[in-house]
Amino acid sequence: MFALDDHRIHLEAEPFARDVDAQTVGALLASGTACRAPVDGTVYGTLLNDRAALDALGDAVNAAPYKAPPKAPVLYVKPRNTFAGHRAKVVVPDDEQGVQVGGSLGVVIGRTACRVSVESALSYVAGYTIVADLCVPHESVYRPSVRFRARDGFCVMGPALVARRHVVDPDALRVAISIEGKAPFMANTSTFVRNVARLIADVTDFMTLAPGDVLTLGVPHGVPIAHAGDQISIAIGDWLPLRFSMTAKEGGGR
């Protein structure tokens, strides 16, 4: 069981995460403190769940070897080395290519979920968090290389985990991805093919999700590219934003 009373935050300087109220989270973050990821379960990313992303493929979804649009969720794993928290500095492997900044709703599982129904799916949710699902830009859709999505720090989460009771409708949340000095990229969780409940039901039809696991709703189509030196902020709904920055490899730079 992964239980959450209010908001969960894990300060960088503290050994364990703690549950606090929203006002306390705001005060802690206002001081400029850095955080670790608020959860440490397995993180599953979801591909092609945004309608615009699926539409952008056009006839490519009917090409070999699949020859049809996906009938089940297309998942990938963000391994533990990718985990980072609020105010992290993430290394850009190739600054000419940059890094795709995917802002996604992270659905945190509260109890073991196996073959759950759509009607009961949300009762298995402990809470939600912001996930910056980063990747090297690439053309592969169904089987992206691990080296594109599993770089160190390529899954920034936080700054806090928000209890389910505070989120009235997870399928109607504004998502804003901002790179300092540029117009923000705007999206909404209402545009996804599978909403939160349907995604949980469809995923648990073929695999079990454990307490503390995170299932991302997916990355919106057309998210921005960041480069070394960029300061990034991702906000969902009225939650406190997740902030982090991109840095060059040692000896590198723009």
From TrEMBL:
Sequence ranges assigned to domain Fumarylacetoacetase-like C-terminal in this UniProt record: 42-238
Coiled-coil region list: none
UniProt cross-references to InterPro entries, sorted A to Z: Fumarylacetoacetase-like_C, Fumarylacetoacetase_C_sf, HPA_isomer/decarb_N
UniProt-listed SUPFAM superfamilies: FAH (SSF56529)
GO molecular function, a single term: 5-oxopent-3-ene-1,2,5-tricarboxylate decarboxylase activity
Keywords: Isomerase, Metal-binding, Plasmid
Pfam families associated with the record: FAA_hydrolase (PF01557)
Protein name as it appears in the record: 2-hydroxyhepta-2,4-diene-1,7-dioate isomerase
Organism this protein belongs to: Paraburkholderia largidicola
